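Section 5: illustrative case.
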């Protein structure tokens, strides 16, 4: 499985860790920290990779990205090109809400991951 697929799977799993119709509240730091060790021990996760994965999952309708707006007293959806990314992702809390399409995609990625052969370990001393 590609690193990007592994990252998307971990994001979708993270979004499902609470059973709340509003979604999973998180911050950039909390999300990054939770995903860093889960993605791939051999490759470091970058901010750009995480941001790209979130935006792609949202664009494909697999994950809703929302932020609570006190002045409106409700959630505001992330809109590519219209939302200020720094304000949305890097300041305060935002919410991840997996969609039905996202649940199905998560299952597909999980099946792909489970079908991968175990990596072979070298024999001998080094």
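Designed sequence:
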């Amino acid at each position: 499985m590609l690193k990007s697929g592994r990252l998307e799977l971990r994001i979708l799993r993270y979004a499902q860790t609470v059973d709340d119709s509003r979604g999973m509240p998180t911050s950039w730091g909390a999300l990054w920290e939770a995903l860093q060790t889960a993605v791939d021990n051999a490759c470091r996760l970058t901010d750009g990779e995480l941001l790209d994965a979130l935006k792609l999952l949202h664009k494909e309708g697999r994950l809703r990205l929302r932020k609570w707006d006190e002045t409106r007293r409700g959630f505001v959806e992330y809109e590519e090109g219209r939302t200020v990314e720094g304000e949305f992702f890097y300041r305060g809390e935002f919410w991840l809400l997996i969609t039905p399409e996202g649940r199905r995609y998560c299952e597909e990625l999980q099946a792909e991951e489970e079908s991968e052969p175990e990596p072979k370990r070298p024999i001998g001393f080094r």
